[in-house]
Structure formats: C-alpha cells, structure tokens
Recover the amino acids of this structure.
C-alpha cells in the first residue's frame, strides 16, 4: 500500500498550505458525478454545436468539424459547490478565446454574456470576459481519455483554478455545462438552471459565493 503512505488528509493539508483549497472545501481523490436529470445518449453522427445570438455569423459545427478546431491542454483544480475539490485535473479541448482570436467565432460588440445550452434544456451563464480566461475550456477529454457519458461526453465546459494562481477569479464547477450543444452570445445576462434555483450567479469559490440570498 505504498501509494497510500500519504493519505487523503495529508494531500489536503498540502494543497491547503499552497493556498489551493478554497474556504469550506475538502479534497477528494474520486470524481463525483452531479447533475439534474438523466444522462443523454449522444450519437456523434447527428451531434452539432450551435454558436448563435450576438455574433456576426451564426455557426453550426458537426462533430468532425468541431474536431478540426485548434486544441488546448489545461491542468486545473476544480471546486464543486457541494464542498469537494479535485486537484491537478487534466483536460483537453477547445478554448473560446482561441476560437475568437482566430476568427472562428465573431461576437458582436454588444455581446457581454454567454449562455451554455446543454442537452435537455440545461443552461448556465457567464460573462463573455470570463469565458475568455484560460481557466475555461470546452473539453472533450479528461485525463487523456474522451469524457465518460456521466461527465459530459462528448463535450462539456470546465471552469477551474490554476495551482500557481490561487485565488484568481474562478467559479464553482456547476458553471461548466455537461453535454454542451450551443453557446448563445447576449447583451444581457440570463440566469441558468442552478442560478435560478438560488445558487450565486457570481459563484466564486474563493469568496465562498455558494447561494444567493434574495
Ligand atoms: N447539463 C448539465 N451540466 C451540469 C449540471 C447539470 O445538471 N446538467 N450540473 C452541474 C453541476 S451542479 C456540477 S457540480 C457539475 C458536476 O460535474 P461532474 O459530474 O463531472 O462532476 O456539472 C455541472 N454541469
Ligand atoms: Mo454542483
């Protein structure tokens, strides 16, 4: 049991000492699955991702086209509002900033928010500026392998924190929609599924913005 010489608690103390554990969180070595409703069965031959709203040209990519977009690898810590954090998670996918910088998506100047549209009508919302940070990824792979159905296959959004930039602006993990099918650019914000249910729209784990009290 050599790999258990350092227990979960030791690892937790380590990341705490590195300022990587947000308030009220604890370290998990597992990868819990959390969502509302059933897990969709996705057929890649009919899958599309639609980019619409406040953009110069609406775009719809099929799976083959999506996979020709430039790809990015990111290692991040993720923080769930249900109080688990997972460290050094490795993701691969597509960065929205890269897509915009390289002209694949052309937001109008009026675009200030992005709504993630997922299977079964699930949505979540973030400011466009935040979506352009490099701790946000449209991810197809976790740990070198395609996402599992539970974790959002074939495409999900991931928002995390960087080990060497702890306390920079981040959000709890629910702002990453699993089974992503569309990105809507908007001038005005629109609360998503958990945000309407009373979760904090800003959702910064470093400020422990879990719930909204309105
Ligand atoms: N489509 C969809 N995405 C979702 C959710 C959901 O209910 N539906 N729940 C969110 C919540 S609350 C969390 S904590 C994370 C969990 O991701 P995981 O199951 O990969 O850990 O997914 C987020 N993305
Ligand atoms: Mo969650």
């Amino acid at each position: 049991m050599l790999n258990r010489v350092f227990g979960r608690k030791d690892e937790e103390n380590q990341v705490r000492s590195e300022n990587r554990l947000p308030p009220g969180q604890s370290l998990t070595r597992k990868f819990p699955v959390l969502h509302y409703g059933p897990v969709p069965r996705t057929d890649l031959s009919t899958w599309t991702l639609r980019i619409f709203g406040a953009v110069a040209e609406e775009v719809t990519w099929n799976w083959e086209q999506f996979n020709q977009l430039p790809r990015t690898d990111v290692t991040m810590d993720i923080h769930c509002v249900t109080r688990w954090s997972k460290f050094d998670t490795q993701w691969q996918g597509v960065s929205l900033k890269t897509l915009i910088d390289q002209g694949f998506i052309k937001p109008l100047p009026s675009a200030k928010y992005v709504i993630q549209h997922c299977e079964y009508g699930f949505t979540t919302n973030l400011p466009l500026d935040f979506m352009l940070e490099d701790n946000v990824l449209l991810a197809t792979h976790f740990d070198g392998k395609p996402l599992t159905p539970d974790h959002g296959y074939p495409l999900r959004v991931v928002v995390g924190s960087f080990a060497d930039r702890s306390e920079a602006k981040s959000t709890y993990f629910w702002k990453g929609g699993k089974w992503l099918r569309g990105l809507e650019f908007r001038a005005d914000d629109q609360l998503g599924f958990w945000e309407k249910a009373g979760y904090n729209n800003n959702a910064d784990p470093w400020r422990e913005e879990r719930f909204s009290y309105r």
